[in-house]
Each structure stands twice: as structure tokens, then as C-alpha cells.
Amino acid sequence: MKGNKKDSSEKPIWDRTSSNISMTRPGRLMIWLLLFISVTYIIYTLKIVSTSHPCQEDLTSYDSDSILHHQRPAKKALTVPVTAAEHEATDLNHVVFGIAASSKLWKHRKEYIKIWFKPKKMRGYVWLDKEVKIKSDAGDQENLPPVRISGNTSSFRYTNKKGHRSAIRISRIVSETLMNLDSEEKKKNVRWFVMGDDDTVFVTDNLIRVLRKYDHEQMYYIGSLSESHLQNIFFSYGMAYGGGGFAISYPLAVALSKMQDRCIQRYPALYGSDDRMQACMAELGVPLTKEIGFHQYDVHGNLFGLLAAHPVIPFVSMHHLDVVEPIFPNMTRVRAIKKLTTPMKIDSAGLLQQSICYDKYKSWTISVSWGYAVQVFRGSFSPREMEMPSRTFLNWYKRADYTAYAFNTRPVSRNPCQTPFVFHMSNVKFDPQLNTTVSEYTRHQDRHPACRWDMANPEEINNIVVYKEPDPHLWSRSPRRNCCRVLQTKRNNTLWINVGVCRAGEVTEVK
Ligand SMILES: *[C@@H]1O[C@H](CO)[C@@H](O)[C@H](O)[C@H]1NC(C)=O
Ligand SMILES: *[C@@H]1O[C@H](CO)[C@@H](O)[C@H](O)[C@H]1NC(C)=O
Ligand SMILES: *[C@@H]1O[C@H](CO)[C@@H](O)[C@H](O)[C@H]1NC(C)=O
Ligand SMILES: *[C@@H]1O[C@H](CO)[C@@H](O)[C@H](O)[C@H]1NC(C)=O
């Protein structure tokens, strides 16, 4: 367009000069004329040159820069007062954790906190109702955040018949944490307050990956809902469930702290701390920003179905670990969660990410949940089926059925041939020679129902090895499930699988 316009403006000028030449007669006149023509030509050319530049600039600014032009003054105003440190990407040192705990359950629950909290790298406080004994021999001093005692809330009304008034104390943790910071800490750039319960376990690297998406200078209330549709109806579809954890940006924490005590007085009949928080958020007009990697896990029984088919988003937290069965068989709950910390360290972005592939020779469907488990199914299941969590877990409300989940699930198959063979992670390491992670999965030896299908029996496999390059930038790209490929081997009892970014044109096609 730009080029065309220039051409068309040049042409008439050239035409005019050439027509001038054709009208001249020989002799002196001609020389004068030629001189005149040359001068006019030069003047015209100069004019074109001098006007074409601003003209070009106008065009570009009209084409694409106009939006930028509008933004420029605002940008300048923002950049003037901030220091270089402000432009750093959000990291763990910008977060202050507030952990809601009770003295009654402290002895047991502190073990969950120790799994993920690293006092040397993180800031935060455990907020308790009263003093507890900090045992030096159990490594409490070195491995737990400092303990704080919540302020006296006996002057607040609490009228809910089913709940406990500790909800008031817990709902004030963000405000109390903010007030608890000394000015030096504030200067050290607090950007986010992250709340969790004493039975919440965070994958902090993924928490940071999520927080980096948001501008900490704006007001944000980030978290996720309950798995239970009924819970979301009773409480709110606009509430961040406290156990799954939630994040509040610094400016929002400041705004909240200025009004929260008055706000809480207006809702004495609410049940918990997180609904009190949401009531105040609603008064502030700040909606929930949903990040479904925070997991409240309002379910009973076995989390397997949920952990084996995680949505394509970073895994941020898990909760209700005392309510559900241990996530690895034949282990205490705390040890089972600790086991997950090895893959967490080696490739946190890929933790519990699902990939689906087919062994076309044996007609099996394989679903990998990296760092946790691999399932082998006889026959072919489409990716859209495998993406749905199987209902290995039970509803929070015992009488509610599968229609009461706030997401799609699939039933656990009753056909003995369709019972998956489950291999749990037994070992994960990084192989520096191969420059890749090597995770092994072994089958928990439980009896498998007999199947008469005439096809390869996955029972012959007792070990699965998954190769996967660490991919710390997985979440800097648009979300996409990794691809997996079954590697052909001569050994019948081991399955080798490669997991990684899908290659150009690679699709998980049902065989
Ligand atoms: C809290 O305050 C009330 C009255 O203001 C007082 O009776 C009570 O003893 C206080 N509780 C604690 C734990 O200090
Ligand atoms: C469970 O763990 C114990 C001790 O670690 C071990 O002796 C036992 O064989 C395990 N049972 C199964 C079924 O794996
Ligand atoms: C190892 O893999 C990473 C990511 O795939 C890559 O950036 C790095 O260059 C590799 N290192 C070597 C020594 O091959
Ligand atoms: C693997 O299984 C095939 C078919 O069942 C059999 O023919 C072969 O001998 C087995 N290989 C090994 C190494 O056991």
C-alpha cells in the first residue's frame, strides 16, 4: 500500500517534466529551457525526498503505532517512580505465606508443612490459636516457618451453628500478616500473600509460574473452586477455597486490611474463613481469578483418578491429605507426599502432567502422569476419554453422585478387561549423560481380574521407564499436552516410553 501510493504520486510529476521536454524548440531557448527543466526537476525531486519521509512516518504511525502512541504517556508515568528491582520477574522471595493452623492438630499437621516449606528460601508464618511446643529434636526450628499467635477475636460475633469461630481468626491472617511485616520487609518487595491450611502442600515453583502471569501492582484474588458442585452452591462459585490455597496481591491485601474487621462483623452467620474472605472481596468488588492448579480436593477415597488425569495447567497445590487415602500405596500419607518431592525438584513444571499414547503392536492405551503413575489399558481409549478423571474418589457429600462434580469424570470400568494396570512411580532421577529425566514406575502387585480378550496381556509388564527432558519453560508457551511414544524393545517385561513436546504434525491418534 505504502509503495503504491509513492509510485502514483511520483508518476504525474515525471509525466509533466517529460511533456515539457517534448514542447521545446532547438537553440538558446532550448538550453535555457533545459536549465529550467533541470532546476525544476531538482526542486521537485528534493521536494519529493523531503516530503516522502514525513509521509512515510505518518503512514506507519497510522498503520500500527497509533495504539502505542496512546499508551506511551501512561507507560512513562508508571516507569518513573519504580526502581529496577520492580521489573524483576516474580520469584519466591516476593511471596509471604500465611499458614492457618490449629494447636490441636499441630503435632501431626506440621509434617505436611515441612514437606514443602523451605525457611531459607521462603518467607511466611504459621498462625496458631495458642502457643505450641517447638521441638528442636524433630527439626521443627529449622524446617518450619516462624509461629505467630493470632489476635484475640472474641469481640467478633459468630453465629453459625455448624462451624467453629476459629474461622474469624483464620480469615484475618492476610491482614495480620501484612501488619506483621516490618517496614524493612515491605521494602524487600512483598508482592503476594499466599494463604494455605496446615494440610495444604504447595508446589512452590508452579505457584510462582502462575503468579508471574499477573501484575502484582493490581488487585488480584487468585485461587480455585471446590471439586464438589454442591460445595460451590452452598459456598460460592466465586470463592477461592482456603485449603487449596489462594493468592492476594499486595495492593489488595492493603485494601482488605483497611476494611476487613468491619466487613467480618457484617457476616456473623457465615461458616468458614474463606467465605468471610469472599464476602469482603465482593464488597471490594474484586472477583476470583480462577487458576485450577490450586486443589481443594473436596473428595474422599482415592485421589488417583484426579492425579492421573490432571488438566493441562501447572499443578500448584493439594489439600485434604488426611481425608483421602495415601497417594502411593502401602505408605503413610506424609511419606507418600514426600515421595512426590523428588520429581518436583527435577522437573516441577512437568509434575503430574498427563500424556497419552498407544502401543500399536499390542493394542494398548498408555496414560502417563509424569512423576506419579502410568496406566496401561487393553484396547483403545480416545484422548477425550483419557483426559477425564476416572472416579476412583468419592463425593464430598456421601449421598451425592457423579452429577455433583463441577467437572467431567468417567466411571471406573466394570469390565475386568478394561481395568487399567497401574504402575506407581518408584524412582526418578536426572541422567546427566542423556540430559534427560529417567523415571521408573512399578506395578503394585494386586490381583488383576481375569480377562478373556485375545490380545497381549499387560500383566507381563512389571516395570515402565519414562524418559523426559526437563522442560522448565513448559508454561511459557501456549498450553499443550505433551506427547508420549512407546519405544520398541526386546524385553517383554519392561515398557520404555518417551515423553516430550509434540513434534510438528504429531497427534495422539487412536489406533
Ligand atoms: C480475649 O479478650 C477477651 C475480652 O476482651 C478476654 O476475656 C479473653 O481472655 C481474651 N482471650 C485471650 C486468649 O487473651
Ligand atoms: C508394604 O510395605 C512393607 C514395608 O515397607 C513391605 O514389607 C510390604 O511387602 C509392602 N507390601 C506390598 C503389598 O507392597
Ligand atoms: C540439555 O537439555 C536442555 C533442554 O532440553 C538443553 O537446553 C541443553 O542444552 C542440553 N544440554 C546438553 C549438554 O546437551
Ligand atoms: C516375548 O514375548 C514373545 C511373544 O509372547 C515371545 O515369543 C518372546 O520369546 C518373548 N521374549 C522374551 C525375551 O522373553
How many β-strand runs? 19
Choose one word for the global shape. Answer: globular
N-end to C-end Cα span: 50 Å
Sheet with most strands: 8 strands, mixed
What is the helix content? Answer: 25-40%
Beta-strand percentage range? 15-25%
Structural class: alpha/beta
Spatial strand arrangement across the major sheet: 11-12-13-15-16-17-19-18
Report the mean per-residue pLDDT as an integer: 86
Give Rg in angstroms. 32 Å
- Quaternary state reads single chain
Bound molecules: 2-acetamido-2-deoxy-beta-D-glucopyranose
User: Helix tally?
Assistant: 15
Number of domains: 3
Low-confidence stretches: 1-26, 48-81
Protein name: Fringe-related protein
Keywords: Membrane, Transmembrane, Transmembrane helix
Pfam families: DUF604
Transmembrane segments: 29-46
Give the helices and strands, then pairings.
Layout: H1 2-22, H2 28-79, E1 95-100, H3 106-116, E2 123-128, H4 140-143, E3 147-149, H5 166-171, H6 173-180, H7 183-187, E4 192-197, E5 201-202, H8 204-211, E6 221-223, H9 229-234, E7 246-249, H10 250-265, H11 273-284, E8 289-290, E9 299-301, H12 304-308, E10 317-318, H13 333-339, H14 341-346, E11 354-359, E12 364-369, E13 373-378, H15 383-386, E14 393-395, E15 421-431, E16 436-443, E17 463-468, E18 483-487, E19 494-500
One 2-acetamido-2-deoxy-beta-D-glucopyranose (NAG) is lined by residues 435, 469.
